[in-house]
């Protein structure tokens, strides 16, 4: 117990990496700017991004944590610092939702929006295709370790790009957890398809 406690103390006292310090300071600047935003004059925008990385500053984010969503930002007129809604003081955020909620809920789908949606749908189809291949391998008798090794070899040889490798490894992890919970192939694929459709429908103002 003493050894474990000592290890935890050492880990807690370890200096942060420079990039971690830079990210923390970068986020602190935005939160400080957010405290000066007046809801009555603030400018707002929205864009697609990750729920856990709205600013797009975490390239190390694991595939399992890359949940795509619509993120909202605000800034003071003339400022070049856009602040994620959930980095704003609660009172400011609530006032912005009350003032701009109708506009945000009824976004017109311009060409850029449609292009982003098409890109997302393409990526999802590729993800499902990868999941089907992974299940085929596992059902042919390969172990998870053998499949992981096969993916790493393909990535090292250039047959899989870095991003594709992450998608395949992320899909394999989803299947591993599904196995542990007793979910079969059809249940997993159906769940992913229904979840994606529900997310897209929720973002489409013309839906329903």
Features:
2 domains, 9% strand, disordered N terminus
Q: Could you tell me the number of beta strands? A: 3
Low-confidence stretches: 1-16
Task: Characterize the biggest β-sheet.
Answer: 3 strands, antiparallel
What is the beta-strand fraction? Answer: 5-15%
List the helices and strands and how they pair.
Elements: H1 2-13, H2 18-34, E1 43-50, E2 68-75, E3 83-84, H3 90-105, H4 111-139, H5 144-156, H6 162-181, H7 185-203
Descriptive notes:
The chain has 208 residues and is mostly helical. It has two domains: 75 residues, no CATH class; 93 residues, no CATH class. It contains seven helices and three strands, in the order ααβββααααα. Strands 1-2-3 form a three-stranded antiparallel beta sheet. The longest helix has 29 residues. It is elongated. It starts with a helix and ends in a 5-residue tail after the last helix.
């Amino acid at each position: 117990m003493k050894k474990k406690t000592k290890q935890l103390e050492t880990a807690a006292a370890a200096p942060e990496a420079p990039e971690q310090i830079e990210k923390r300071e970068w986020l602190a600047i935005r939160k400080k700017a957010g405290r000066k935003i007046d809801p009555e004059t603030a400018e707002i925008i929205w864009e697609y991004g990750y729920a856990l990385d709205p600013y797009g500053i975490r390239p190390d984010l694991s595939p399992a944590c890359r949940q795509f969503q619509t993120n909202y930002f605000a800034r003071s007129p003339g400022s070049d610092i856009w602040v994620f809604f959930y980095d704003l003081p609660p009172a400011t955020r609530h006032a912005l939702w009350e003032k701009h909620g109708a506009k945000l809920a009824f976004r017109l789908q311009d060409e850029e929006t449609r292009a982003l949606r098409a890109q997302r749908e393409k990526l999802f189809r590729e993800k499902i295709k990868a999941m089907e291949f992974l299940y085929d391998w596992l059902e042919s008798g390969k172990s998870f370790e053998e499949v992981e090794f096969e993916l790493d070899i393909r990535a090292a040889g250039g047959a899989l790009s870095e991003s594709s490798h992450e998608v395949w490894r992320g899909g394999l992890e989803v299947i591993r957890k599904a196995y542990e919970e007793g979910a079969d192939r059809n249940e997993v694929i159906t769940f992913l398809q229904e979840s994606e459709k529900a997310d897209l429908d929720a973002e489409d103002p013309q839906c329903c």
